[in-house]
């Protein structure tokens, strides 16, 4: 039983973390909320005035906003689909007996540790470039016309790059979960005559269900905020074809200096992220009890 | 693994897995190879994979032209600085939550987690304005503070899951033997907590090293870490693939190697203990 003494000590030990995070969360967020109701441009200091819901109205009726929301959803959905399906496949494969398993694992996991600006630039220049890229050489060798991936299919190309970065994460988590499946259970199913497909559907996937959900939720949180990859490959273009919500707010804030509009966009992004966060936190909270 | 499989099957799995592994790893391998080529060979058709004139000149050039190590040290200072600061704050918090839990501990943990879910772009404008007004733009200390704050929830969580595994009986035994809180901390808890703290440190250095939202938005050149430095290669002129590769190789090598050692901790840290 904790005494009053240790309870006070515990409170004291938690205080710095709690206070710092509280400030980090409350101060900027309330500033964003406040700015979002102002007519406020960084280039014209001193002219701030109350604007009501004007910023929201502008932001939410801007065609770029709908494109950005659409792009965000396509990007998140596409990358999630590719990494979860690919991750399940790779985890199943890496769980099989083979020679040099450790090394293959290292090769597969490596992209996760590459910083986003490096991945994006390497893919953009050395692989996807229509003149000097490796894909162009492959296309030429096979007798096809090289494709300028990032200007013809900007959003899909960026999604490929990001899927490459996140596939290792999904694989690693799903493999960890797969390896916690008891050997006895698999053997029992095998002895009862379940074939490989039946074992996958009735034993393996249900066992991994929780890990799959965790991968989906955590990736969603990170993928909603994709920024660097867009900045260094397409700058959101051509036009706004590869602009996601994060990039749109960045442009509004630091390229057009429209504090009010950017803040309204920021609040919209927070609301979207919170919808996902609620599910994730509930799930982790449940896990904390067992 | 006691599963019995035929050698034939094993060889087949090996082949498939190695092919896929090499495809996934290829962009990294290609970058490393290109970094040893001349600019001419880097864009030669057909591309040469191994039989080219190996040279180190790109590495020399990158340092000479753009003061690479300045940015490298910024990365080191920011990632280790924020991690160490973070540990000082998070170790006591996680310790308290693991060993003197109250009814509210769980809520506090989940609330901390929820701050991590706040999208950066939601606070970009105020942070930028605060940084501008306090002269923190393009300073290492500014980035260290931001990086510490965004990773603090992960640190507390990770340490908490590790501390939770330390059996409470050991602490009780120490207390019965008359150990004070200080002694308990130094002689009993610290040795058992070191592995968890080391893993937390490792994961957070990796996350901070690769963070590319705040580093790109809050730095220009003076305090720019490698993420921002590499981004400056996005609009260059002339031939530059070999130099881009050399700069990239140097930027990712230390962290990819650290990352390979931290696979297990990564799972625990990034899933907040939901998958072990």
TrEMBL record, chain A:
SUPFAM superfamilies: MetI-like. Residues 69-280 form the ABC transmembrane type-1 domain. Signal peptide: none annotated. It is a multi-pass membrane protein. It is found in: Cell membrane. GO terms for cellular component: plasma membrane. Belongs to the binding-protein-dependent transport system permease family. This is Sorbitol ABC transporter membrane protein /mannitol ABC transporter membrane protein. The lineage of its organism: Bacteria, Pseudomonadati, Pseudomonadota, Alphaproteobacteria, Hyphomicrobiales.
